[in-house]
Amino acid sequence: MLRASFCCSGFGPLGRTVRTLAVLGTWSLALLFPASHAFAQDKNALEKVQQKGVLTVALYKDFAPFSDDGKGIDVELAKALAAKLGVQMSPLWFNAGDDVDGDLRKMVWRGTPVGYGPADMMMHVPVDPQYMAKVDQAKIFGAYHRERFAVGRNLDSLPTLENLEPFEKLSLGVEGESMGALVMLSADGGRYRDKLKIFKNTEDAVAALKSGAVAAVLGQQGELESGVGADKRFAIDLPPNQLLKMQQWRIGLAVKAENVELYKALDKAMAELLADGTVTRIVEASGMKHRQP
């Protein structure tokens, strides 16, 4: 779920927007708060979750098949993680902001000015070493799936797809503000710009593909798999563009950086859910293929 600004930060695209946190005063804070105090705070976060019997989880709105209308892959995974801790899962829904930094700030370590959040944990966070090295306030971990770009195409309109040339004449749907949209707007000197159809999200673009309004859709492979399922009218391929074909990214979890004990418990829980096949079952129940992180 990453947009153009994520890719511009060196991540590669995800479908929605991705984003960078500033690092302030780490050394001076360490002097003010000794390690023993920090450990007490770490332990407190896990204890508080267990004492109240609820793990509050930040989930993106309108992001099928991961989290939409109260259901989805991330929702079911969050419930499974909470069960591993012996508690219930309580969702904290939010709209994607301009970048991932802002989402982490609102939902993981600070909360909003009006008191919404932060949650105990956030789902669907980019697990990228370069990005993680820049983030001091959040601990990112627990990768559970790997995503990439793909093209879903109508086989009657587009029996094969060996290059981008067909999109000089055939319409291609993309999500607005995504890396896919940016690449296609500028590819080959803008040759495909006139046939590019911009949609609010990939779900809407897939609906247009099914109705015949567009010949193909460029988006996250998982969203395309979930959208067209086993419908024999369509095929899903890697995009015939080297920049998009190369891009892959892992998605995982985030907690406030100081909540080390909560991080350890959730990291262990996710490892167990991956090992026993729970993650694969949840992902593939949506019509997606699970790609091991």
Task: Please give the structural blueprint.
Elements: H1 4-8, H2 26-32, H3 35-52, E1 54-60, H4 73-84, E2 88-94, H5 100-109, E3 121-126, H6 129-134, E4 138-154, E5 172-175, H7 179-186, E6 196-199, H8 202-211, E7 216-220, H9 221-228, E8 234-237, H10 242-246, E9 248-256, H11 260-275, H12 278-284
Helix pairs in contact: 3-11, 4-11, 4-12, 8-9
Q: What descriptive keywords fit this protein?
A:
single chain, alpha/beta, D-Maltodextrin-Binding Protein, domain 2, 2 domains, 9-stranded mixed β-sheet, 9 strands, disordered N terminus
One letter per element, helices H and strands E, the order comes to: HHHEHEHEHEEHEHEHEHEHH
CATH topology of the largest domain: D-Maltodextrin-Binding Protein, domain 2
* Gross CATH architecture of the largest domain: 3-Layer(aba) Sandwich
What is the percent of helical residues? Answer: 25-40%
Which segments are poorly predicted (pLDDT under 50) over 5 or more consecutive residues? 1-41
Descriptive notes:
The chain is α/β, with parallel strands linked by helices. It starts with a helix and ends in a 9-residue tail after the last helix. It is 38% helix and 22% strand. The chain folds into 2 domains: 179 residues, 3-Layer(aba) Sandwich (D-Maltodextrin-Binding Protein, domain 2); 99 residues, D-Maltodextrin-Binding Protein, domain 2. It contains 12 helices and 9 strands. Helix 7 links the parallel strand 5 and strand 6. Helix 4 packs across helix 11 and helix 8 crosses helix 9. Strands 1, 2, 3, 4, 5, 6, 7, 8 and 9 form a 9-stranded mixed β-sheet that branches.
